[in-house]
Amino acid sequence: MLTQRSRHHLLQRLFWNERGAAIVSRAIQFERKFDAVVRNYSLMGETNGERWLPSLLDDEPVVFDVGFHDGASTGAILRARPKSRVIAFDPSRFALRQYEAKFLEDDRVILENYGLSNRPGEAEFYDYDNMCNSFSPRKETLESPTVYTVPVTTIDNYCGEHGIEHIDFLKIDAEGFDLHVLEGARELLSAQGADIFVFEFASGWSASKRYLWEAAELLDPLPYTLYHLFNGFLCPFIYDVKIDSSCTLPAMYVGVSDRRLAWGDIPLRDYGF
Asked: CA-to-CA distance for 214 and 226, rounded, in angstroms?
């Protein structure tokens, strides 16, 4: 029977050569595709469930689109629920141009051209003129950003100022500041003021030095259950340090209020892979 040491030496001899390295490369490529397609560690909105989520909303939902960017999410929500009222947030100049080009004449959509975080004030914004716009400098891009100062507020402050007590859907794609946005919505979430929220866990979290376990701890005392989004169903979230890598296992996570969950119409599957 082989010992652990002898097994390691055997595997090294098998794969630490040109032919073995080629096999390993193909195996890694398959593993990455398996993670993205089957385990749904994917940011592809057309197949990861993002486009399915609006089907869980009422016919006339109130939606917060945090991280409007080019308006793709807002457009998808309006196609699924044409009577939606969307309040979008994005501090970038690019987002303002996109809003003016696509939705300026659409009275269903309002763009608030500032940022959301966990406290009001001002912050430096790193504008790469692409999907990586963020409040933190990004390491995965070689482009030099345009840096400018933008106003920021919190969801709780915004709702208080505008008399909003309930929203149906809170979509957050803040390029690493998703947790900051949730922290700024404690009052709303404590009152189950958002039926469903979704946030993106991706490389921006590394730039902002935040972790998935922090999101789990934030939500633990709140009347919400956290799920991993799949295409057509939700899977109960179970924290494992192995998935707390925003660079290699990006995913979409969904929070559902106890009140909304009690409706009993959301498909759930307990997948352990």
From this structure: 12
At residue 50, what is the residue type? E
Q: How far apart are CA 55 and CA 32, in angstroms?
A: 29
Beta carbons within 8 Å of 16's beta carbon, 6+ residues apart = none
Share of residues in the chain with pLDDT > 90 (%)? 92
pLDDT tops 90 at residue 44 = yes
Q: Is 29 exposed, middle or buried (0-12, 13-18, 19+ CB in 10 A)?
A: exposed
Tokens describing residue 148: 């400018």
Residue in this structure with the two tokens 């991993």, named with its chain if needed: 228
| Phi, psi for residue 242 in degrees, rounded to 5 | -65, -30
Distance CA 165, CA 210 (A): 28
The answer on 252 and 234 residing in a single domain is yes
DSSP state of 81: -
Q: Do 65 and 116 belong together in one domain?
A: yes
Split at pLDDT 50, 70, 90, the class of 142 is low
How far apart (Å, rounded) are the C-alpha atoms in residues 11 and 266? 46
pLDDT digits (tens, 9 = 90+) for 83-100: 999 999 999 999 999 999
Q: Are 254 and 53 in contact (CB under 8 A)?
A: yes
Within a domain: 172: yes
Q: What is the tens place of the pLDDT at every residue in 97-115?
A: 999 999 999 999 999 999 9
Q: What are the start-end ranges of the E strands in 42-173?
A: 62-66, 85-89, 109-112, 115-116, 121-127, 146-153, 167-172
pLDDT at 132 over 90: no
The verdict on residue 271 lying in a domain is: no
Domain check: are 14 and 73 in the same one?
Answer: no
pLDDT at 1: 75
Q: Are residues 65 and 31 in the same domain?
A: no
Place of tokens 């055997």: 10
